[in-house]
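User: Teach me something about this protein's shape.
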Amino acid sequence: MPRTRLHVIPTSAPDDVSGLEALIEAKQIDPGALVAILGKTEGNGCVNDFTRAFAIAALKGALGPKSEHIAMVMSGGTEGGLSPHLITFERLEEDGPGPALAIGTEVTGALVPEELGTQAQIRVVAAGVESAMARAGIASSEEVHFVQVKCPLLTAERIIETEARGQRTETRDTLKSMALSRGASALGVALALGEIDQSTAEAAEIGKDPAIWSGRASCSAGSELMGHEILVMGMSADWTGPLTIDHCVMADTIDTGPVAQAMARLQIGQGARLAALLAKAEASSTGAIRGTRHTMLDDSDISATRHARAFVGGALAGLTGQTDLFISGGAEHQGPDGGGPVAVIAERRL
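Assistant: First, the predicted structure itself:
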């Protein structure tokens, strides 16, 4: 039976792979069994955040040819007290009881720039999620608890190249392209998981209709790719091991109650420990949190996504007692306006 093994590895810089190499040397990680690596890097999380590509280059250098089949999702931005780290996922084979955490990955083909933020991107991501589910052996979308997607963005060079071919991109604002890409990717996840139907997906105004959202999508945009790196996480009776997963949705940036409930369902602190937490963070478009004004949208010095990451990271760190949390900013069509999906992974005693 397949089994997921997970490690959370602290990093001292975006190119720090010493912790990963030490675990490989100690035979606690089998590089041939790695299927995905997620990472939080300490860049700005915006268009020019080269810490993401820097981290991937370092990982590929450390892993060599084995890295070709590993989905790598680097999310920039560790504002506030968030701690930079890597999360490694291995697929091992061993006998044992189920159910347990099941994982599957897919790397899609590259988009052309004019497809970013369009129905074409929704279709590509939906097909990629379905493929990753098949790789995980997850037959039902109800068993999927979280889908992590790394999606592309537009750069000035990509926009100019597109226009030279007589085509037009959905926006000429590179920062806005991140939101469009995240939004289209999230709608692709929602479509694949049956959270919305085809007609809803086709009618959606990407990035403009906060009423349409996925409760299990987490999408992060970067300049280091033009395709998508997709990791599907769920529960399956055909998988074994000590890891389990649950999910919830925060209604706003201080709504930690659902996260506490998910932790309780997984018996964290009662025979199980928190192995990893992944969450989306978003500044509400209303400019208020529970009726009280916030200034995240008015700060011209720092992007609202950076404020939201720090704020949600602090709220969840206070709840969990940990700062090595995978908090990703920008939650277009990912949870309700101002809120976002959360995945909680626990390691139980067997």
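Now, about its shape. Helices lie at 18-25, 51-63, 119-136, 156-164, 174-192, 198-203, 257-265, 304-320. The longest strand covers residues 272-281. If you'd like, I can walk through any region in more detail.
User: That's plenty for now, thanks!
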